[in-house]
Amino acid sequence: MLGRDTRLLASAMIVACLALVGPSTPIGALVSGALPARGAEDVVPNRVLTWNLCNPCDESNVERAAEIAAYAPQVIGVQEACVSDVERIREHLENLHGLVYHVEYGAVLRNWGRCGGLPWNPGGYGQAILSASPMTDHVSVEYPEGGSEDRGYMAVTTEVAGRPVRVFNTHLAERRQEPIREAQTRVLAAAVARYDRALVIGDFNAVPDAPELAPMWKLAVDADPDCHPSPGAGCATTTDWQSKFDYIFLRDITPLTQRVRPTEVSDHDMVYADLAPLT
Q: Rounded to an integer, what distance in angstroms lies between the CA atom of residue 177 and that of residue 156?
């Protein structure tokens, strides 16, 4: 893997070449999309992002990495994630965009159809957390009942808003499986309740006023101050079917802003929040 100084020198040489031959030449067409867009120092402090990657979907990990790099969060939680895809995304973030992340996985099943691999050694599938800071105390928990597909949550401790914070990432059972999601939320909420300060992100497959989310609303608030479980609340939708399923729940953490960014490479939008520094 090339060092950052080597990559920057190579980029400078490419830019010099483009200045001589012009961007309309074949050289310009080939390299214009490969120039590093950011440096590692441009990770945005106190920014967290959640994104369901969509699987099975025939999408490029180069494009997924570019979508993430546009917002350069400090902490990223992804769902419907193959271990192999996340590893490629992390490599592209570093090599193409200069953004360096640590990674932990919360694979809840091994699935050849979703993640490929050898038939007797299929790829891991589930959640993952990427953080610009090191992560400790990693756990991965499969829910007692997953519904139509195994589901679970993972948790790590990493730096968020200037302090160590327990970060959870989950993916609840699919739509029309309300009783199963209710049981899963109780398991998740019990784990979150053990921490005075926590960040809970993921795809909950339920709208804000769904009864099964009540245990989470008792513990935390949405990063969007206009979003709450009352019918008619001003919650921005996060999916192609115009529902809010993706959440950034905050426990004793203050949000500054939350944004929903549509993307063409998934059926879920990217949701990110900027958080106030912790004291």
A: 27
What is the C-alpha separation between 143 and 205, in angstroms, rounded?
Answer: 15
68 token code pair:
């993430």
Of 128, 140, 134, 131, which is closest to residue 203 (Cα–Cα)?
A: 128
Q: Which residues contact 95 (CB under 8 A, 6 or more apart)?
A: 1, 2, 7
Sheet with 73-82, edge to edge strand ranges: 102-110, 124-131, 73-82, 44-52, 270-275, 255-261
- For residue 30, give every residue at least 6 positions away whose Cβ sits within 8 Å of its Cβ, in sequence order, or none: none
Measured between alpha carbons, how far is 121 from 257 in angstroms, rounded to an integer?
Answer: 43
- Closest among 133, 153, 134 to 46, alpha carbons compared: 133
Among 36-40, 223-227, 235-239, 265-269, the minimum mean pLDDT is found in 36-40
- Model confidence, pTM: 0.84
Confidence band of 243 (pLDDT split at 50, 70, 90): very high
First to last CA, the chain: 38
Whole-number Cα distances in Å, 224 to 18, 198, 261, 271: 43, 16, 14, 10
